Amino acid sequence: MSGHSTYAPKTGFGKWMDARLPIARLMHDSFVSYPVPRNLNSFYTFGGILSLMLIVQIVTGIVLAMHYAANTEVAFNSVEQFVRDGNFGWLFRYMHANGASMFFIAVYIHIFRGLYYGSYKAPREILWILGCIIFLLMMATAFMGYVLPWGQMSFWGATVITGFFTAIPMIGDSIQTLLLGGFVVDNPTLNRFFSLHYLLPFMIVGVVILHVWALHVTGQTNPTGVEVKKTSDVIPFTPYATVKDAFAMVVFLIVFAWFLFYLPNFLGHPDNYIPADSLKTPAHIVPEWYFLPFYAILRAITFNISIPFTDIVLIDSKLGGVLAMFGSIAVLFLVPWLDTSPVRSANYRPIYRWFFWLLVITGIALGYLGSRPAEGGYVLAAQFFTFLYFAHFLVILPWLGKFEKPTPLPASITDAVLGEKAKA
Amino acid sequence: MMKSLIRNTLGVIAICFIGFGSAQASEEGATPHYPIEHPKHVHWSFAGPFGHWDLAQLQRGFKIYHEVCSACHAMKLVAYRNLQELGFSEAQVKAYIAENEIEVDAEPNEDGEVEKRAAKPSDLFVPPFENDEAAKANNNGALPPDFSLLAKARAPERGFPNFVFDVFTMYAENGPDYIYSLLTGYQEAPAGVKVEDGTHYNPYFIAGPALAMAAPLSDGQVTYDDGSPETLDQYSKDISAFMMWAAEPKLVERKSLGFKVMIFLLVFAGLMYFTKKKIWSDVKH
User: Fold this and answer.
1) Per the CB < 8 Å rule, is B22 touching A39?
2) Do B284 and A38 touch (CB under 8 A)?
3) Residue of A nearest to B146 (CA)
4) Which among B152, B275, B285 is the nearest to A38, CB-wise?
5) What is the pTM assigned to this prediction?
6) A265 contacts in chain B (CB < 8 Å)
7) Within a domain: residue B251?
8) Residue B280 resides in a domain
9) What's the number of CA atoms in the CB half-sphere (13 Å) around residue B127?
10) pLDDT the model gives residue A312
């Protein structure tokens, strides 16, 4: 896709460097002359926004780590002390905490954009899978980061989440002990979580580089889903995509700033302002909002799965819940092969489009149900939406591709763009 | 290959669904939802994008804390020097420490004995009890929570759809509203509600129908010297505002910086928008 390099160093130093380490050429080819489809809409700006958020999280995180002490005796107060007495401590802290939420808002939009426009289809399977890996790493990082302030939700969230691993037959307990560094969440847990919380973002950076590399090999998809065919389909990344991404970032920062400066605790849980107490369980243990859909799936499995007409339990409800939860993420990895439709973009898939929006509603519904206590009608609703979630990927995607009659595709991106303009 | 795999998977799922229900977890009786009453809304000076402290109110709130609450409730994250943020001078803070003969543990002397010394403004508020166990022992077994973060740690759920509107109305005063409502919300338990001995019915309490603390404030209990009404209502507002300050001392700084950042970002976004429009003007997209 990148094809022939158009980089031409002008200065003597530029030429000297280019013959030794052509890093300027790499940057030029990747972010200046790199061709992007001319018809990308705003939903394609979230990749850039996510890169920005990753940098924000790393920078604020490094500053916070300078003031943080990973020890159960002092962790809670060390955070508070920085917030109260450090130079702009409150700003760094709220930026990091709300930044995580913004990161997830952006990543969810980014993922759903990929699902809508069929961005995972050949030849972009690896690109998609790398994205799924980034998402998994983000979840691990966010979860461990939430434990660090050592509030009530930190402690009990860690207790609940690491408890999942005990559901694994035979080796589950040993895995949990290894994760915790003991039999309960305690100082060793906090120490290793801090270490890993500092490590994982840099692993994310590494996978992001691979993700961008894979993207630049295959090139971007676009709202038509038709591959780039001629030079009039594309425009150079700079200045076109650069200025568009920059505008989108500023708009996104306005949303970020709104929460950061005016509602800094809106997305957090009040109980995390209570220091961790291993003897006092909160009334409702809930994870951060961005985990709620998965939490709802976990708790939806309230039944044992057994061999019919016998009492032999194959999978008890606890293991079932954990499997369903991990399965809900694992299934994303398989999407490129589950979707059998030859057409990428939902714009030309009239039925898929409905199911796509049903999936969005399912995700939001599961998120809401994850925040409710697991009782009565909430459980039934969570079971219903969990079923819808899996049905979307395991039933709808494979079958729909065969039934659905796509609407006619434009011959090229140029045709689509100019055709639409002509009509308007 | 793929087809048969999917077919098999679906088959397995179907079989499992036939088999389920063998051990449907029975959730008996939904847990009652607290608080029984949603917090009342108070108009706070620190609400909204231009929120600021009412220093006179914070000083009154501090007076209530000093005269009433501090008998049981610690405030371990706040230092005496922080009182200057309420409009007290350094001399006033020192005078406060001296008047109340506040003492803290000194460094061990050369004989290894720990003596008391007068507190300095840089010292943190001395808690009323040596430790949590002592606090419990003196309070019927209930631990009076620390005040430092309470206004942020007690925020009853807003529920749907309120939490969506809150994003746009910038409602972030759930904590002080809760404290105000609790303090003014003590009442006779309605018939049929069983209140355990040693607890006091309050429909605004976040964790049950009644709490261990008896109504701590009543009309005329604390003398104000600025002419403010000496009523339970006013006391409750003042102490709630003070607790919000204790929990979020940088609130005003945050909001005023936020306003500048917002203006900057809006102008920046406008410039970027027109730059983008100009650059893209020659490309149909």
Assistant:
1) no
2) yes
3) A274
4) B285
5) 0.92
6) 152, 155, 172
7) yes
8) no
9) 18
10) 83
pLDDT of B179-190, one tens digit each?
999 999 999 999
- Alpha-carbon gap, residue A22 to A384, rounded angstroms: 55
- Nearest by CB: A262 against B19, B172, B283: B172
Minimum distance, in Å, between the CA of residue B37 and any CA atom of chain A = 17
Q: Three-state SS for A246? A: helix
CB contact under 8 Å between B149 and A80, yes or no, is: yes
Q: How close A327 comes to chain B (CA, Å)?
A: 13
Judge contact between A108 and A102, C-beta under 8 A: no
B35: preceding bond cis by omega (within 30 degrees) = yes
Flag whether B127 is in a domain.
no
**pLDDT tens column, B28-54:** 344 567 899 999 999 999 999 999 999
Count of other CB atoms within 10 angstroms of residue A365: 18
Joined together, the tokens standing for residue B61 give: 């709130």
pLDDT-flagged residues of chain A (< 50): 1-2, 423-424
CATH fourth-level superfamily of A31-423 = Cytochrome Bc1 Complex; Chain C (1.20.810.10)
Instruction: Give Cα separations from A58 to A254, A257, B170 (angstroms).
Output: 20, 18, 28
Based on the structure, what is the number of domains in chain B?
A: 1
User: Could you tell me which residue, B237 or B34, shows the higher pLDDT?
Assistant: B237
User: In this structure, what token pair is assigned to residue B256?
Assistant: 């005023």
Spell out the alpha helix ranges (H) of chain B: 2-19, 55-67, 90-99, 132-137, 150-153, 162-169, 174-184, 232-247, 251-280
Domain boundaries defined on chain A: 31-423
pLDDT tens digit string along A20-73?
Answer: 999 999 999 999 999 999 999 999 999 999 999 999 999 999 999 999 999 999
pLDDT at B4 over 70: no
Classify residue B274: in a domain, yes or no: no
Domain containing residue B167: CATH number: 1.10.760.10
Residue B285 at interface with chain A, using a CB cutoff of 8 Å: yes
User: Which residues of B are less than 8 Å from A311 in CB distance?
Assistant: 22
Question: B1 CB near a chain A CB, below 8 Å?
Answer: no
**Are A374 and B27 within 8 A, CB to CB?**
yes
Per-residue pLDDT band at B10 (split at 50, 70, 90): very low
Domain limits at B57?
Answer: 32-78+143-260
pLDDT at B8: 47
If DSSP codes are grouped into helix, strand and coil, which group holds residue A297?
Answer: helix
Other Cβ atoms closer than 10 A to A404:
18
Please tell me the predicted confidence (pLDDT) of residue B23: 34
Q: Judge: B22–A244 Cβ closer than 8 Å, yes or no.
A: no
